[in-house]
Design goal:
The complex is a heterodimer. In chain A, the strands form two sheets. In chain A, strands 2-1-3-4-11-10-9-6-7 form a nine-stranded mixed sheet, with helices on both faces. Chain A has a two-stranded antiparallel sheet with strand order 5-8. Chain A contains five helices and eleven strands, in the order βαββαβαββββαβββα. Chain A starts with a strand and ends with a helix. Chain A has a single domain, classed as Class I glutamine amidotransferase (GATase) domain (Rossmann fold), CATH 3.40.50.880. By secondary structure, chain A is an alpha/beta fold. Chain B is globular. Among the domains of chain B are: 230 residues, Phosphoribosyl-aminoimidazole Synthetase, Chain A, domain 2 (Alpha-Beta Complex), CATH 3.90.650; 137 residues, Phosphoribosyl-aminoimidazole Synthetase, Chain A, domain 2 (Alpha-Beta Complex), CATH 3.90.650. The chains are: A alpha/beta, B alpha+beta. The interface between A and B is medium-sized, with 30 and 32 residues.
């Protein structure tokens, strides 16, 4: 067992926390449960904000979670460089917490969509994507009702020019995201938000017909072990 | 104003009570008076009227449903049978599975989104109350004609309701059915199934033993939702301030249900629950009477303590409310602090509302006065039982005589295949199923469009020892078959679900059913019901799979016209090594394709007769249950030995549709040669058949295995290429199959 410790946050209504913990363990890192109501990051080396419907997605996805006690610790830690990956609802929370720019809105189809999606890794310079090769095309499941990434024209242009778009949809945009954006990073690169679910593509037997999601977990492990 | 108390009831014995408005018959009301030795109070009448309703008491179906017990095959796997919230089956290695299917038909017509959503919520709570972690859901749906205007209202709403509730709850949706038929236009069928897993020694039951133990109501607060029809309050007898009409359809909060799931599992792990019951139909009335009746026998409840969302609710309404996301637990007094702490951790409100007594009476108070004082068993278990008259429908013989023999057979088999493949009942369900999360919890081995859903067991609960086992689940039903012959139709529904489980390599173990019928007061409908139950019970005995529970839904009709009799059957199976699961369809090129089972000329009720000729007549395919059993034995053994790479059951649309779907699974073509009349070979719907793609070099071993079990095995050809080719009959590129298959539902529903 590696000494790398990845915190997995559980809010009321979080759904993919067990899945994320399993993926973390599969690559040989340690999964550390973090509870929304604690002011305690338990000294973890990185944090994974899993998907789900935290606080029922009431008001607006991620809008209430942003104010959870744990987030009061996480936001400054992330600003100070702690690697953080938020997928799906986790991505929404990162946007609501202003750790990432833009917002995730209702899918253009107005339907929830669960499908196996081809995507391209646009940036390998983050702690979560370092194990991929630049431009690598992989398959990850998406499953969300509000995954349409939107941002102002200036923000979009800035994201593109600074290479902050980390993952892009291929072969059909599932939700109408601007610029086919599936995932972005902050300026520093340590915080990444992603609509697809790498934690559901880590085993041959279950989940999506792909194990491409392992790359995200292998990346952070490598980063932490080499740090 | 004060509520109608027992004291008042005693002093006003002749006060007229609104029993008829609550759906109670005069003789039923007389029986309540006889039981109590006085007139019931308003609250007591509320309890008896809901507990003795068809929905809760099974008064019209009970005499028939007994066959599921009296004819039940011996099964070592059955841990908890009918009569509890859900049946529990031993799946080995110390694990148990609990599963049940239930209808939410009528609410889903009135308000499709909430009706379907709360259908999911209700069945999930049944599974939770057995001590299990719910691990997956499925939905068996039937709508009016696909192009009917109202179907465009009902279907998207139902799908969205299931999608929203199930996804938000974090349960993968791994299968089910979507069927269209004009007979369901005014009465869609929304049957929701949930399966849960638990350790064998963790089973919880709905019982309230131990005088002095506390009764805790936890979860959502109680509001005025779901107080259907003629409210008690419509009567001036006990109410002056008349409330406006209450919403009859409950509103669901899946977020609260998710918290309830995690909260309950933590309560079970802490061993602070003596008995537990979910609140579903008939809410507090049902939970208190059933818990008390199965425990020491008595309970005292202070209804003023029930947390209310609407403080103006009267006790009669509190008793009848069907507010969602509520549970009732019986807890030792010394465990109350630990119980409350866990509820608080999950932000789940919990309130002690009473305690268990040894008086044999369920006593409830309101503002200090006794408003209910009844023997709980009389409401929970001793409701009326009817032997409803029944007879064969007047037109049944003529319907059976109108066989499909007179229908013109097609000259162009290619066009026929494409027409069927693009018809609403056979087209791709992706428009529906892509709205469901099938991956959450990461234990989904197979999901739609696979023949059965399959889950890994091992990773379900942290800390439990690992196992290689998996469970498989399928639901099936065919209203047209059942309309032609309800006895055989019910058997065919079971046979298909059983076969769908077996083709994945899992051994069928147990059955749940949802029996959707018209009015039991119509002797012709009652005949359909009696025949279907008899057929299903007989078939369960032959196949060796017991019924563990289920649900009866009557009154599925518009005016005098009932829906097709629609028994929907769910089968649960176990696979010893989940890594040996067999995927649906052709998995690679260069594999030999074999057809297992015998094909007869059987077109009564077939998809071909329905789609091409709009015809329903004759008799359905015969149910060959011994052949089904032998076929399943071959499929399970072949999977265990690794002889087959892919498989697919044959059902609606026959071999032609099975071949096309097998090609579509991964875009791999096939070339096959058929013997005999190609139309019959391709489109007949004979039962007890499956298609398999054989592992290279394993064909002889498979053939020998089939011979051993006396299952016919025909080598048809090989997989590969980019087209489906039936020599001398048709050739279609897989891309064209796909276009035809996937275009239909998006074109209809956007």
């Amino acid at each position: 067992m590696s000494a790398a410790r990845v915190g997995i946050v559980t809010f009321p209504g979080t759904l993919d926390d067990q899945d994320a913990a399993r993926a973390v363990r599969l690559v040989g890192a340690q999964a550390v449960p973090l509870w929304h109501a604690d002011h305690d990051l338990k000294g973890v080396d990185a944090v994974f904000l899993p998907g789900g419907f935290s606080y029922g997605d009431y008001l607006r996805c991620g809008a209430i979670s942003r104010f959870a006690p744990l987030m009061q610790e996480l936001v400054p830690a992330a600003r100070a460089g702690l690697p953080v990956l938020g997928t799906c609802n986790g991505f929404q929370i990162l946007c609501e917490a202003h750790l990432l720019p833009g917002a995730l809105t209702r899918n253009a189809s107005l339907h929830y969509v669960c499908r196996d999606q081809r995507v391209r890794i646009e940036q390998t310079g983050t702690p979560w994507t370092g194990s991929f090769s630049p431009g690598q095309e992989i398959v990850l499941p998406v499953k969300h009702g509000e995954g349409r990434y939107v941002a102002s024209a200036e923000t979009l242009a800035a994201l593109e020019s600074a290479g902050q778009v980390v993952v892009r949809y291929l072969d059909g945009n599932p939700n109408g995201s601007m610029n086919d954006i599936a995932g972005i990073r902050n300026e520093a690169g340590n915080v990444v938000g992603l609509m697809p679910h790498p934690e559901h593509a880590v085993e041959e037997l279950v989940g999506a017909p792909s194990t491409d999601g392992l790359g995200f977990f292998a990346s952070i492990l490598k980063k932490l072990v080499n740090a | 104003m004060s509520a109608d108390s027992v004291k008042r009831a005693e002093s006003t014995p002749d006060e007229p009570m609104p029993f008829a408005e609550l759906g109670m018959k005069q003789d039923e009301y007389d029986r309540v008076k006889e039981i109590l030795g006085r007139r019931p109070t308003g609250s007591e009448l509320a309890i008896y009227s809901v507990m003795w309703s068809e929905h809760c008491s099974y008064k019209s179906s009970k005499v028939h449903l007994r066959q599921f017990a009296t004819k039940a095959p011996k099964s070592e796997a059955l841990l908890v049978g009918m009569g509890e919230n859900a049946g529990v089956v031993d799946i080995g290695d110390g694990w148990a599975a609990t599963f049940k299917i239930e209808s939410h038909n009528h609410p889903s017509y009135v308000e499709p989104h909430q009706g379907a959503a709360t259908g999911v919520g209700g069945i999930v709570r049944d599974i939770m109350s057995m001590g299990a972690r719910p691990v997956a859901v499925m939905d068996s749906l039937r709508f009016g004609g696909a192009d009917a205007v109202d179907t465009r209202r009902v279907l998207p709403g139902v799908v969205e309701g299931i999608s929203h509730y199930g996804n938000c709850l974090g349960l993968p949706n791994i299968g089910g059915e979507v069927v269209f038929d004009p007979c369901y236009i005014g009465n869609p069928l929304v049957n929701a199934l949930c399966v849960g897993l638990l350790r064998k020694d963790q089973i919880k039951l709905a019982t309230a033993p131990g005088p002095g133990n506390k009764v805790v109501l936890f979860g959502a607060s109680t509001g005025p939702d779901g107080i259907g029809g003629a409210s008690v309050l419509a009567s001036a007898t006990f109410e002056e301030e008349s409330h406006a009409k209450r919403p009859a359809v409950q509103v669901g909060d899946p977020f609260m249900e998710k918290l309830l799931i995690e909260c309950c599992l933590e309560l079970y792990a802490a061993d602070v629950v003596v008995g537990i019951q979910d609140l579903g139909a008939a809410g507090v009335s049902c939970a208190t009477t059933e818990l008390a009746a199965k425990g020491t026998g008595g309970m005292r409840v202070d209804l003023n303590l029930v947390p209310l969302r609407d403080p103006s609710l009267r006790p009669e309404e509190i008793l009848m409310s069907e507010s969602q996301e509520r549970m009732m637990a019986v807890v030792r007094p010394s465990d109350i602090p630990a119980f409350m702490a866990i509820c608080q951790k999950w932000d789940v409100p919990a309130t002690v509302i009473g305690e268990v007594t040894d008086t044999g009476r369920l006593v409830m108070t309101w503002d200090g006065e006794v408003i209910v004082d009844i023997p709980p068993g009389t409401a929970a278990d001793e409701g009326p039982v009817y032997e409803r008259p029944y007879h064969e429908p007047a037109g049944q013989a003529a319907l059976n005589a109108d066989t499909p023999d007179r229908l013109e057979r097609p000259a162009d088999l290619r066009a026929t295949l494409l027409r069927l493949l693009g018809s609403p009942n056979l087209a791709s369900r992706e428009w529906v199923t892509s709205q469901y999360d099938r991956y959450v919890r990461s234990n989904t081995v197979l999901a739609q469009p696979a023949d059965a859903g399959m889950l890994r067991v091992s990773e379900v609960m942290a800390g439990a020892e690992p196992t290689t086992r998996g469970i498989a689940l399928a639901t099936d039903g065919n209203g047209r078959y059942a309309r032609l012959d309800p006895y055989t139709g019910a058997q065919l529904a079971l046979a298909e679900a059983y076969r769908n489980v077996a083709v994945t390599g899992a051994r069928p173990l147990a059955v749940t059913n949802c029996l959707n019928f018209g009015s039991p007061e119509d002797p012709e409908v009652m005949w359909q019901f009696a025949e279907a139950v008899r057929g299903l019970a007989d078939a369960c005995r032959t196949l060796g799979v017991p019924v563990t529970g289920g649900n009866v839904s009557f009154y599925n009709q518009t005016g005098a016209t009932a829906v097709h009799p629609t028994p929907v059957v769910g089968v649960l199976g176990v696979i010893d090594d989940v890594a040996r699961r067999v995927r649906t369809g052709f998995t690679a090129g260069g594999l030999r394709v074999a057809l297992l089972g015998e094909t007869r000329e059987e077109f009564g009720g077939s998809e071909w007769a329905h789609v091409v000729h709009g015809h329903l007549g004759g008799l359905p395919p015969q149910a060959h249950l011994e052949a089904e059993r032998a076929l399943a034995a071959v499929l399970v053994e072949a999977a265990g030995r690794g002889l087959v790479e892919g498989s697919h059951d044959l059902s609606d649309g026959g071999l032609a549709v099975a071949l096309a779907e097998s090609c579509l699974a991964r875009g791999i073509g096939a070339t096959v040669t058929l013997t005999g009349d190609p139309f019959t070979a391709l489109f007949s719907e004979s039962s007890a058949r499956a298609l398999v793609a054989v592992r290279p070099g394993a064909f002889d071993e498979l053939a020998a295995l089939c011979a051993e079990h006396e299952v016919p095995c025909y080598g048809l050809g090989t997989t590969g290429g980019s087209s489906l080719v039936v020599e001398g009959a048709l050739e279609v590129p897989v891309s064209e199959l796909r276009e035809t298959h996937t275009a239909t539902l998006p074109a209809l529903f956007g």
